[in-house]
Amino acid sequence: MREATYLILTALADGERHGYGIVQQVDAISDGRVRLGTGTLYGALERLQNDGWVRATREEVVDGRTRRYYQLTGDGRRALIDAVEQLEANARAARVRLAGA
Amino acid sequence: MTAGLGPRYEHRARRLLRAFPRRYRESHEHELLSTLADVEGARRSPRASTAIDLVRAGWAERIRTHPPFFRWLWYRLGGKLPPEYRAWMLDDLRGRWYGTRRCLAAMAFYMTWCAVMFIPLGPLYHFPARAWIEAFFEGLISYAVLAVVVVPFFSGRMRARVLRQHGIDPTGAPLMPDRAFVPPAFPVRVATRAAPLYVPVGWGLCIGWALAALVVVVNNPGAGAIPLAISGIVFLASTSMLGYYRRSMRERTLTAQFAVMPPGNAPVVLAVLLAGLPALGATLGGPGLAGISLIVGGVGPATVTLGRYARRLEAELGRAVPSRWVHTRFAPAPPEHV
User: Fold this and answer.
1) Which is nearest to B304 in space by CA: B73, B78, B152, B148?
2) Shortest Cα–Cα distance, B29 to chain A (Å)
3) Three-class DSSP category at A73
4) Which member of B1, B32, B61 has the closest CB to residue A38?
5) How far apart are alpha carbons B261 and B252 in whole angstroms?
6) What residues in A contact B58, CB-CB < 8 Å?
7) Residue of B110, B111, B114 lying closest to B284 (CA atoms)
């Protein structure tokens, strides 16, 4: 899983968000290290929707701006859990080796 | 207008968003502009990194949804695409210069085929490579002229045909419930509006084309004229069907078109492929092979085309047609269309 995808899924893990909300969350989660481009975000959302990991829930227009909200699906949640476990296992293995050196 | 965006920013951003496929823009453009307004709305024009990111993402989306090469080639040469590429296909049909793009793709394919065929046939006929290259470029130029000057007149008709071939009603009327889908209405509108031009333009071009071929053949009985003459004959035969087509555009009910679908272009593509070999043989070997190439290259595809329309006409007059042509999902005709 690419980092951008992982971060987008993480941003959606605790509830639905619109595009700019996801950008802000990704910024916060990564401590400002990852600046998600608008193109990258929407490209990834389209792919994730096709894979059935994310779905659009509702749309509203606030002050002349269109906001569409996105949400994790069951499959998306499972994929994120798998990715987290994988990363944790990798991190553990790295720590063990570093401690042994 | 998206709130919070300056006109200059919005103009530039919309231009950058053209990197995305049309279907995506239609459903997401305003949302994307809104997010851009949130992210960097105070700027006068998009940041360079934003611009690169948008273009890259747009093209990635285009590539992701594009049919694989051989499927695409098959479709470009007149074949059918499976339903999962329908959204891509509708974009392709609605895009600018549809006929020209299709014609140029066919040209590239045919030219590649001829180039590949030269490897075995060139030495066989002791044909000098230089003359072959000349003939190749002659074909290339006439095809390119055809694509840019002639084909745009037929784009609407080609679009409507491809839509019907894929079971989509070109006027946008709803199909049977399980296939409910509303395609763009304009291909047929364009086709019908241009209908009065079909016959005079078609015949003018045919006669011009045939005269040009004749002049070339008389003045220069060299090899390159023969493919030109062949293409002229094919062109003449197919365009002579225009009159019938124009009348049928006006009179034929849609349901009749849908109930009876003659086979697609596959036989024509096959015939053209087969014709490539003898046509090249004629180019290389002189008049002996010209006869064969004329029969296979000219009469073959023309007969197939004529046969298809004759059968369609028969069907409309109430004669029997092969059952495999009858698409049952269109068969129950809604009375208001009859």
Assistant:
1) B78
2) 10
3) coil
4) B32
5) 14
6) 39, 43
7) B114
ipTM given for this complex: 0.89
Tell me how far the alpha carbon of residue B112 is from its chain's centroid: 18
Pairing mode, strands A65-72 and A17-18: antiparallel
Count Cα atoms within 13 angstroms, Cβ side, for B304. 17
Say yes or no: B84 contacts chain A, CB-CB below 8 A: no
Q: Which of B1, B28, B64 sits opposite A42 (nearest CB)?
A: B28
B78-121 per-position pLDDT tens digit? 788 888 888 899 888 888 888 888 888 877 877 777 777 666 66
Determine whether the interchain pair B39/A65 forms a contact, defined as Cβ–Cβ distance below 8 Å: no
Closest Cβ opposite residue B53 in set A19, A39, A64: A39
Q: Are B167 and B183 in contact (CB under 8 A)?
A: no
Check residue B126 and give its pLDDT.
Answer: 63
> What is the helix (H) or strand (E) element at residue A62, kind and residue range?
strand A54-62
The one-character DSSP state at B152 is G
C-beta neighbour count of B245 within 10 angstroms = 18
Say if residue A23 is exposed, middle or buried (CB neighbours under 10 Å; 0-12, 13-18, 19+): buried
Residues of chain A with C-beta less than 8 angstroms from the C-beta of B36 = 38
Give the 3-state secondary structure of residue B42: coil
Look up residue A80 and give its amino acid.
L
Q: Higher model confidence: residue B178 or residue B243?
A: B243
Residues of B in contact with A63 (CB under 8 A): 3-4
The pLDDT score that the predictor gives to residue B157 is 77
Instruction: Report the pLDDT value the prediction gives residue B137, as an integer from 0 to 100.
Output: 73
Size of interface A-B (CB pairs under 8 A): 69
- If we measure between CA atoms, which residue out of B242, B240, B250 comes closest to residue B192? B250
